[in-house]
């Protein structure tokens, strides 16, 4: 069956090859590049493969080579509201957000998919390294490039309208295919930085948005060890940049309290947690479990995978995900996503939630 497919083309090699594969399969493909800033000079420049000034030109050239129509959609207002402002607000609340995950959730698969369906498209194709098997997200065959974590926030309906052509190959194979197809982005570097922070200075960006707000750095007993210029410059698990001098024992950020503007630090073992609570759970590959079920969870992009039990319960502000890790994890930050994978192989996404709290109830001293 021939589908009308909207291919999201970032200007990088992955999305170009994904669009080419869908077109070669005989589908009716239209390429679209998302303009995410009304002032492109305020974003990062250079050929990096995501959101740069040059990327729309690279995407258009790739569409020309593939032989598909190409358009640019202005998503700058949605991006600023849903990603940039959310990023600043989350740091201001003492959390550590993942802007790429938020962009996938709110821009690439909510705003874009809604518009695509309204225009009569059947599906949206992207260059994410992930597979879709029986309507569920499954890890890519290239473990190093797997992006199932940053897509774990998608709903089952969004997954149903998505096409991921690259999940069955490695990044090296994608680049080789791009070269064979004559795509000029074959050797284009991957993007790793936050696109809307042009100079890479996250602390400086947040200072300009939130303002400097001096406060105290405390130890676990509440003793004042030093001062900071803004709690938003820290994240749980951070070791460098604390400004505490050459202490004999390394200290790590244990918690951030935005109300009284304090940062608490301590030894690495104090970072260990085995209990996690998540809010706004989404289940794309399973029904919400009312009783604890064995599974795997991932707590950050490209992070370690942990055996765990999870269940969903009713919280004061809506459903909550309750996670109990089989082994403790360190540096688990509120604002990040906990993505749940099936218990047998740990490769199929079941659902996700946003981490809101952690506990150490079963962690040995």
TrEMBL record:
Record's catalysed reaction(s): S-sulfanyl-L-cysteinyl-[protein] + uridine(34) in tRNA + AH2 + ATP = 2-thiouridine(34) in tRNA + L-cysteinyl-[protein] + A + AMP + diphosphate + H(+)
Active site positions, chain numbering: 103, 195
Residue numbers marked as site, Interaction with tRNA: 128, 336
Locations listed in the record: Cytoplasm
GO molecular function, one term: ATP binding
Location (main, coarse): cytoplasm
Protein name in the entry: tRNA-specific 2-thiouridylase MnmA
